[in-house]
Each structure stands twice: as structure tokens, then as C-alpha cells.
């Protein structure tokens, strides 16, 4: 892997936004291990100090990772200072508000894309930008219906329609706002690409659910840790989506690395969903590796999502940039998700 041609020189600075996130922290670590330097954009530098400890400590002591505060990702000029001198940007940050008003979720998400793009346009060192999209940008991932085939031009426009339905804003808006924000943000990415003569290349990597090794306790306690919900029997969350896709966080991080460094990947929309799963698949693995623990009963009549998605581009990058022949096996990723100091029986 060390002999591969790269779009940016080894030792270059890369900016990772939302660096405290589950995926973002693994992306940062993989770049550091490859000899790159990482500038982590975070909302609060003090609360993000764990990114300078543990597996990051030796890199921090050598000056290879630095943290920079970007408290409001949607503000004008939010990233102007953060992008200075970086060769690549990996934008994983997203608006975490779970509120009914779409103006508080979708609008800042779109503004965040514009802020990143505008800052990059003014910084001649930037050669690549990789945005983290989402499977829900392309599909509602709805059970009990045929979701069809996901292609380059597949969009979950129904989420936008639901989120922007007229007020009064209620629970239905709050439920739709996250998906809608991901749809709107990615559409803004490609609109910017189409309307401007960019001096850099843009790619989008879109995962579904993530699992695997947490690097801090917040990665276990967060709402998007699907395996932790099953481990704890959190049916309030599990009941909302019985079937989906899951991938190991390190796999998706490696695809982000490839989408940044691979000269052959340009204007790619990489669906990186991983394994098609039903909760019963995860519960079966948990019972196998924790036979002493009592888990919730299986759901009756389990059905996987009826959907077809081409993930071949992601698999190619995974092989090329991490020497894996495919997705990390589901059982291995679940084991890593629960065998740590943060999740206890």
C-alpha cells in the first residue's frame, strides 16, 4: 500500500471536520498511520482533548495532529482559517440537532457545505474534498416495500418533502429532518461542483449504519451505535428500523482515505453501506459471543430490506487501500463493538 500513487504528498495536512465523531476519529487515525498530518475541526477544543490521548498521543506529541475550533459549521467563513495550508478536506461534520424546525437542521447543513466549498476555493493548497454522505440521501431504506435499485441519480426526495411540509412543526418533521439534511447537503455538494470551475476534486462516501471499535465512550453512548442498542435491548430505537445495512467503521474510514488519495477516483458517489442486516442477525451474534448474557427475544418474521445497491466502487477502494477482499465480517465487527472498556454488561 505504501507504494501507491497519491493525489497529495505524504506528510501533507488534511482537515477532518467533526473530528470527535465515530467515523471521523477513525479517518483521522488512518491518515496519521499513513504519515499524514491531521487538523481536527471540532466545536469545543477542550471537550475534544481525548483526540490527543490514547492511540493519538504519540502523533500529538510529534505535532502531527492539531485541533481547531469551529463552533458553528454553518456560519459564513466558518472554515476560512481551518483550511489554510491543508491539501485535503474530509467533511464528516453534520448538524446534530433533533428538533422539529427544519430551518434549524437543514439550513445550517447546507450552509456548512457552502462554507467548506467557499473556504476551499480561496485556499490554493486544497486538492481534494471528500464529503461524508449517507445511505438515506439515496433511499428511505423502508421495510416491507421494494426500494428498487440505487443508482447515481437516486435521491430520497420524500424526506425533503416531509421535512419542509408547512408548519406547525411537529414530531414528523423532527423524524424527517436528519435524512432531509443529508439529502439537501449532498445535493448542494453536486450543485456547487456543477456550477463552478473547481481547482480540486470532490468525492462523496455514503455509509449506512456503523459498528466496530469505539475510540471514546461517547461513541458507545451515541444514538447511532446500532450494536450498542441491540446489546442493551433498546427496543425504543430498534423498533423504528428493523432492517438496514451495517459496515465496520474502519472499512468506511479506509474508503474515505482511498477517495482522498486515489488519483483515479473523481466525482464519485460511493455507496458504502456494508452488510444487509436485520436485528435478529445482530442478536444471534451477540448471543454467541456473550452466552452468559440475556438478550431480548428475536423479532417475528424477520425480513431484510428489498433493495439493490452497487457497492463495487467502495469494495475496490477497500481492497486497494486496506488490502481487504470485502467488508469486515459482521461477527468480527460486532465483537469489536462490544469488546472494549466502554460497554459493560
From TrEMBL:
Q: Where are the transmembrane segments?
A: 12-32
Checking SUPFAM superfamilies in the record gives: NAD(P)-binding Rossmann-fold domains (SSF51735)
Q: Which residues form the NAD-dependent epimerase/dehydratase domain?
A: 14-202
Q: Keywords on this record?
A: Membrane, Oxidoreductase, Transmembrane, Transmembrane helix
The UniProt GO MF terms for this protein read: oxidoreductase activity, acting on the CH-OH group of donors, NAD or NADP as acceptor
Pfam families to which the protein is assigned, alphabetical: Epimerase (PF01370)
Family to which this protein belongs: Belongs to the NAD(P)-dependent epimerase/dehydratase family. Dihydroflavonol-4-reductase subfamily.
- This chain belongs to which protein, by name? NAD-dependent epimerase/dehydratase domain-containing protein
Amino acid at each position: 500500500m505504501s507504494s501507491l500513487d497519491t493525489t497529495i504528498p505524504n506528510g501533507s495536512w488534511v482537515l477532518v471536520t467533526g473530528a470527535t465523531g465515530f467515523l471521523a476519529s477513525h479517518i483521522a487515525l488512518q491518515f496519521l498511520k499513513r504519515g499524514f498530518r491531521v487538523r481536527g475541526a471540532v466545536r469545543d477544543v477542550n471537550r475534544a482533548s481525548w483526540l490527543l490521548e490514547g492511540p493519538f498521543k504519540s502523533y500529538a506529541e510529534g505535532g502531527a495532529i492539531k485541533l481547531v475550533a469551529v463552533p458553528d459549521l454553518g456560519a459564513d467563513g466558518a472554515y476560512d482559517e481551518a483550511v489554510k495550508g491543508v491539501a485535503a478536506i474530509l467533511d464528516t461534520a453534520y448538524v446534530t440537532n433533533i428538533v422539529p424546525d427544519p430551518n434549524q437542521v437543514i439550513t445550517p447543513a447546507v450552509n456548512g457545505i457552502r462554507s467548506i466549498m467557499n473556504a476551499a476555493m480561496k485556499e490554493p493548497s486544497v486538492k481534494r474534498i471528500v464529503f461524508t454522505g449517507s445511505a438515506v440521501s439515496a433511499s428511505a431504506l423502508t421495510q416491507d416495500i421494494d426500494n428498487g435499485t440505487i443508482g447515481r441519480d437516486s435521491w430520497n426526495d420524500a424526506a425533503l418533502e416531509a421535512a419542509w411540509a408547512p408548519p406547525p412543526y411537529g414530531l414528523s418533521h423532527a423524524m424527517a429532518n436528519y435524512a432531509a439534511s443529508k439529502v439537501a447537503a449532498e445535493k448542494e455538494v453536486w450543485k456547487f461542483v456543477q456550477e463552478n470551475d473547481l481547482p480540486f476534486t470532490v468525492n462523496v462516501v455514503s455509509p449506512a449504519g456503523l459498528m466496530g471499535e469505539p475510540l471514546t465512550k461517547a461513541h458507545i453512548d451515541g444514538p447511532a451505535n446500532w450494536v450498542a442498542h441491540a446489546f442493551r435491548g433498546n427496543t425504543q430505537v430498534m423498533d423504528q428500523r428493523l432492517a438496514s445495512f451495517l459496515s465496520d467503521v474502519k472499512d468506511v474510514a479506509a474508503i474515505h482515505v482511498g477517495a482522498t488519495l486515489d488519483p483515479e477516483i473523481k466525482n464519485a458517489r460511493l455507496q458504502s453501506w456494508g452488510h444487509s442486516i436485520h436485528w435478529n442477525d445482530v442478536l444471534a451474534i451477540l448471543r454467541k459471543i456473550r452466552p452468559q448474557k440475556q438478550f431480548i427475544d428475536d423479532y417475528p418474521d424477520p425480513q431484510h430490506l428489498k433493495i439493490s445497491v452497487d457497492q463495487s466502487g467502495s469494495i475496490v477502494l477497500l481492497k486497494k487501500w486496506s488490502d481487504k477482499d470485502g467488508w469486515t465480517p459482521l461477527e468480527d465487527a460486532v465483537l469489536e463493538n462490544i469488546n472494549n472498556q466502554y460497554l459493560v454488561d
